[in-house]
Amino acid sequence: MNRALKSKKCEKPGCGVFPSRGHNHGACIANAINDAEELCTQTGARLTPLRRTVLKLVWQGHKPLGAYDILQDLRKIRPSAEPPTVYRALEFLLGLGLIHRIERLNAYVGCSHPGETHEGQFLICRSCGRAAELHDTSINKALTNGAAGVGFVLENPMVEVEGLCPNCIRPSNKISKNKIRQANG
Known about the structure:
Blueprint: H1 26-43, H2 49-58, H3 67-77, H4 83-95, E1 99-102, E2 107-110, E3 121-125, E4 131-134, H5 137-149, E5 159-163, H6 174-183
């Protein structure tokens, strides 16, 4: 699926790969819903009220949420919601590329580039739990070339990396500051 979507990504201060702590998720949720509506129009799929609500719940923050966390939040709105309801909605959203599943956490996070063909890299903060989707084609190329070099064909080149986000790096955290200096050369 490689469909250009019209909704603009948040370009306000604090809306970077890792939004600042005071970031208002309203724009993220609005963009996600607009993208979902547009993709559904393009593909003929239906964004039911339940699917829309689950998408909003996934986008309520930048932390990956497990299906049962989503169910717990959904039950505040729809007390009779059951696990299969959530899993069906998540499968629909995954199928359209509106969300991603973070395998190592068994959790879901909103896709920042729905409608575009891409392999994501996820940066997961071990301190605050937030995750950011990164798109670095050089990482994809290195993985593909490295795998091909040993006769391996990648089927799902999703990368999940744990570390500290900019908001959680403290000036007194010398190890993280040293790692940042080393990475920046």
